[in-house]
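[step 3/7] fold_predict: job queued, chain A
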Amino acid sequence: MDVVEVVPEPLPHRSSITGAVITNGTTGTGATNGTTNDTVDSYYIPRNPDPLPYVKLRDTPITHKPSDAPLCRSCKKLQYTFFDPECTTCHVILTAPTTTVSQIFAIIRQWSPKVQKNIYKLGVELLRRGCHPDDKDGLTDMTMLQYCCMAGCTGIGSVYRACDMAQLLIDKGCSVGYRCRWTQMTALHYAAYFDVGPMIRLLLHSTNGTDVNLTSPEFEDGTSLHISAANFNLDAARALLAAGANPLLKDKRNRTALDCIPEDAAGEEAESMSEMLLSAGAQFQMPVYDQVTYEGVCGKVLLMQLGFKIGERVTTLQGKSGVLRYMGTTEFAGGLWAGIALDDEAGKNNGTVNYVSYFRCQDNHGMFVPVSKCFHEGDTKALANAVAKEAAKQKKERKISTMKGPPKPKTSSIQHPDLNDQPEMKEEKEAGSKSGKENSLSVKPNVTARRGSSVGVIRKSTASVGGVPPKPAPKKSSIPKSETSTAKNPKFIN
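[step 4/7] structure written:
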């Protein structure tokens, strides 16, 4: 049986894209910081054609059960513990129809250079079996795209083959923003953690840079730039900053990316990372976004999109009915509002608010509500769903407020109001202070529970009953009884 390689070893390839960074240290439209790296391209577009143009993939992704990785007899004799895709017998096992998808995922999980450098070959075998591009490994809950980001790590895998496979998965329609269930990390976070700069540029190019500042709960809600700074990943940090990452964002611990660099870090990498982030923070400018308005939208087009008509019967979320007289923007608040002429005198105006007339109706018959709270009079289903959502929202708010509860008062000992006026208690308090003992004016009863019973038994104690303190116990005299008797009767004294 002839063994044919699935894909040849890709050669270094550079593609010129308008507005994209071509190589480390050289730019297309913007400059990058740091030194150049001739061994790895900063932006890499795979040149391999689709190896499976006629294979029909599954429509929906699934999670495959965990399994053990297979191993050929020759590798067992050599006491190898990892699958070797370059071995002839192992390659036969890999391409055999009896090898399941779970077994191939088990092979990909092996963190060895021989496996990670052949990530393209393993990924093609998954697609050849009709897998969806977003199929997940049951043990790690990771997709093939996330495994590709790990396989591009320098010294372990091949950046070119990992980018080849990633581009093929993106062309097949994989989800770039999927989060692993265990680590809550996306493919961009994995690429930043393993310092795969070309993979970062490839992912951001596919999403137009919309997820460049996406946070991860695994790293204290830090962005990919926080992850790169904490691990001294210079290439990843360059790629993120060139794509517009915000170096001033803070994580849950109120740290920027510059603060994530360890304090005891020393060396060229730490200095380069610090200088890069300092210069990027000084030059960074927050993007200015235009506020969404509907001024340029024609009124008829707006009504057609929302499914309403002027003059038809409508109902509000509170159950008030009337005729729709206006729908559009207003001067008193942003967003879209619906002006309704109510049947009853339950409104707030006559169609005029702040000297701006939107429609005309009788006094106290006009009412403005947001478009989301306006429904067709016969659409009971939409109204019921909206009422249910509003009730659930209010219930959640009440639950949160009850969970917080009122502030707890400070605990203090309970004192009798007339306690200071009793001379006996004053003497006892002064005597206790002299002996260095603390006297508690209110003692809690000692309650113990019997076995098999939930009712407690109150033992005798010196607790105050009804707010009246108990009488102090008589002090025992240290004089013998015989001496005290003679002291009380003066006739026995000699």
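[step 5/7] annotate
The chain is about 30% helix and 10% strand.
The CA atoms of residues 92 and 462 lie 87 Å apart.
exit 0
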